[in-house]
Amino acid sequence: MVEYIVFLTINVGLYSIFALGLNLQWGICGLINFGLVAFMILGSYATVLLSLKGVPIIIAVAIGALLAALLGLLIGLSTLRLREDYLSIVTIGGAETLRLIVQNEQGLTKGTFGIQSFPLPFSQWEPNLFLKLILIAILTLLAVFCIAKIVKSVQKNLRNKLSASRRRLYLAVMGVLGVILTLLIYINGVLAVSDYSYKVGLMILELSVLALIYLGLEFLINSPWGRVLKAIREDEEVAKALGKNVFIYKLQAFLIGGAIAGIAGSFFAWQLTAIYPSNFDSLVTFNAWIIVVLGGAGSNVGTILGSVIFWLYESATRFLPTIGFLSESQVGALRVMLIGLILIVLMMSRPQGLLGKGEELTLDR
Amino acid sequence: MDESLLLATGLSKSFGGIKAVNNASIEVKTNSITGLIGPNGAGKTTLFNLISRFIEPDQGQVTFAGKSLDQLQSHQVSRSGCVRTFQVAKVLSRLSVMENMLLAAPKQLGEDFLQVWFKRDEIRRQERENKEQAMRILEDIGLASKVNDYAGILSGGQRKLLEIGRALMSSPKLILLDEPAAGVNPTLIAQISEHIIRWNSQGISFLIVEHNMDVIMSLCDYVWVMAEGTNLADGKPAEIQNNSKVLEAYLGGPDE
After folding, report:
1. Across the interface, do A364 and B110 touch by the CB < 8 Å criterion?
2. Does the model's ipTM exceed the 0.85 cut?
3. Whole-model pTM?
4. Size of interface A-B (CB pairs under 8 A)
């Protein structure tokens, strides 16, 4: 069970990072990117192939992120001047093209055989008691940061008399659940550290990276730079009329979001420990979309929460009992139906997403 | 007073076979309030789009404050001090009124992706100053009480006001106003007119497209008339009012 929760936490973390990239592009800047997985492919394969050649892992990740950003530059330069619907078509086409190249290229990416036994961070590492204590300290730091953040934002909302009492109650409940969940992951993490395996190191590394990316993005989107991005999302003509170089800002959002998705790709590869082109079909992109929409577009906390919920129902429905008259494959199909149903119910009750602002839906109507 | 701030000559633009603007010219003198009128479809808004370079002209030149705008992109035109508004007021709905205003402030260090990380103190100071400036303008136009509301909840008239306030926030030399009185109640129209006169006295020039003749005649120092994409007449408001060609264009010719 401890191991399974570690596995889940890594998935939550890497999808959080991945979806945070999309949230910057779409939630903040309004760019419809249906090809996010392309950036992940570059991040994954670059990290894995370079580290197989003996490049230190951290540099391999950096190069992967850089390549993903370059792909963003390439797609961006050619399509960001188009209207948003064209952008979405080009990105989905670009991602599929890249996946097919990876699938058919034999020399470098080994086609459908995929790539196995590549270096993993911390895999040769046997921490002694002291190092384990440091790992626990990092985990504690992350948990405290997370809980402090939740408590602070709930407090702020309770003090805000303007928001409806129902919304305040809702956020309080979400806050309590968030704290419980954080504690659960934390305690499980501590238990896992005492019985160290490769995945524990990966989890702590990943959560730390997630925290850094989150802080960076929060800083950015609350800065004047982020304000321009939001303005472009609302109406790019206004941004233009007020002297903002819309194209450059879109390109920046696309590059940064892409690089973040590339970093998520590295963790994806390390989580899988063997990568195949089929790991990167467009469903991965749409999972990120589900996460962002579920959490509330434009909200980084919401995106992370969306990722948590996504994996909670993913794993909850995985353990459906095989009811007498249903075969195993039928249960599998039922699971997908249930996931769809959960999504529909969530979207009907909170169309703005879990942490989105409901009053935004009533504007301009 | 007689110096030319904006001078557009020989502007033309066709969409397919339709000549929306055909060899049109316009001049705005420094520190003036200039009007631009004409029947629907005369090409007034297209002319605005050409001047602000939201649309590239097929032909013609525009100079602003002694510099040619012909090679510039629309955001550069705005930065040079020639700021436009829109016929249907465009506000950034899911941003607050204050954020709408702050966006317009010129030369913000914090809008540069690299500077934003390293010059935090300076950026904070800039933000504070810009907020004070925005608050002054909002108080001026009577939107101070809405400062933290979403711009999307504003009424049509308030949106017009916010749009004008936002244009002011960018410290422009010239504001291109596209129908500031359309869909606005008479009391508010009077207020907007008063504001325009006062801002003008502070050194900001205006080029105003408007159908409300009272507004045009009472505000403007000089009026240009367009019809069917080209210049019909220009002169002082009193001259325009008595110009037979203008009356014909508005009321229809004798043989129609």
Report:
1. no
2. yes
3. 0.90
4. 95
